[in-house]
Amino acid sequence: MTMPRIGCTSAVVSHGCEDAVRGDELEIFSMFLTFECPRLGPIRRRLEGNEPFLMDVESNADIGAVIAACAFQGNNPRYLLVKKAHVTDYPYSGMWALPGGMVRIQNAHVGPELLKLRAIERMLSETNVVIPSDSLRFAKGVPPATEYPVKGKLRTVIVVPFVFQPALTDAAIATIYSTHQSVDAVQVVNPLPLMPEIAPANRVILARLIWPGLESEERDAIRNTVTAALNASNAIARRIHFPEIQAWF
């Protein structure tokens, strides 16, 4: 997998960084503002003065926020990933994931800044990496859906990905470590050989970011595992009447 060093967190360079991130961060919320979901509750559009659009969610469902932070080894992108600790009944124990956390929704307004704040807080606690909020942009595309049990109750989560720009520096990488109870390891790695070991929603996010920069044989090598993750995400999305992710490969 080769590509020029361009200072873009995303590995999408065939058409420039804008293929990986949205010019208007509020666009990501348009998909939430046009449907009603039995599990997530009615989501409707609000505009108060010059404030951003907010999601008004009337249930205890979750929205996740994760950060795709990239570094370069030569021309090859590597991503900052955490390995989830082994937890009883947690389906993604021992799998790799992007750093991030949940925004618990209980009749609360959830906007871009709250998601950014939660992602930044979790990035710091899981990896010791400090990220300024103005360096995060929403990744392009419909966010994937996932679910997992919490205290015996299955929770549905929409995973909203951010892309960190510019790329992680060597100085930042040198500070990486984790003592977080949910993390067994934290590394900056090439995600390709780890794809089957990456939690499904995160696998979809990473695959969508790096796909345009892959050689045909690299795409073939991960196609089946990415397809499986995409199908799992879309099955959950259908159950909650959330937009499905269209296959890009």
Fold and architecture overview:
- The chain has 249 residues and is α+β, with helices and mostly antiparallel strands.
- 24% of the residues lie in helices and 25% in strands.
- The protein contains five helices and 13 strands.
- The chain has helices at residues 27-30, 112-127, 170-174, 200-210, 216-239, and strands spanning 36-37, 41-42, 55-56, 62-68, 70-73, 76-84, 96-97, 100-104, 109-110, 136-138, 145-150, 153-164, 183-189.
- The strands form four sheets. Strands 4, 8, 10, 11 and 12 form a five-stranded mixed beta sheet that branches.
- α4 (200-210) crosses α5 (216-239).
- The model is unreliable at 1-19 and 21-60 (pLDDT under 50).
Defining traits:
4-stranded antiparallel β-sheet; single chain; 5-stranded mixed β-sheet; globular; 5 helices; Nucleoside Triphosphate Pyrophosphohydrolase; 13 strands; 249 residues; 25% strand; alpha+beta
Biggest sheet layout = 5 strands, mixed
pLDDT below 50 for ≥5 consecutive residues: which ranges?
Answer: 1-19, 21-60
Distinct helical segment count: 5
User: Structural class of the helices, strands and pairings?
Assistant: alpha+beta
Separation, N- and C-terminal Cα atoms: 17 Å
The overall pLDDT, averaged over residues, is 74
The total tally of domains equals: 1
The CATH class name reads Alpha Beta
Q: Care to give the gist of this entry?
A:
24% of the residues lie in helices and 25% in strands.
